[in-house]
Prior knowledge:
Layout (H helix, E strand, L loop, with lengths): L2 E6 L7 H4 L8 E2 L2 E2 H11 L4 E6 L3 H8 L8 E6 L5 H8 L8 E5 L8 H11 L7
Parallel strand pairs: 1-4, 1-6, 4-5
Antiparallel strand pairs: 2-3
Amino acid sequence: MKQVVILAGGQGTRLAERFGSLPKALVPIGGKPLIEHQLELACGHGFADVRVFVHHQAAQLQQHLGDGRRWGARVICVVEPTPLGTAGALLAALDQLADRFIVFYGDTMVNVDLARLWAAHQGSGADATLV
Length: 131
């Protein structure tokens, strides 16, 4: 199964003046939260297993995402008791991750052909592919 990891644990301190304590991943873009755009992109390219690493306002993100059925995916939130950063979060949960996965930052809007990226990575033999 193709897996996506979304790192959405940041506090969003620079956005607090405009959005209060709203997690960055829930900031609306084009009428819906950023993380929904990411989930639609991932699911549209056949990624049905999503792990969302949360810390700041974790309960709010968990409640919004639910189990992921509305996107046709299985969404599991992994709560970080303390912020671990990119490498720390991935290493701490390595036993919950697939052998291969794509990582999104929860505050980044992307529009990438994930199926093509996935195929290129698998065909390259590389340990990692960065965009």
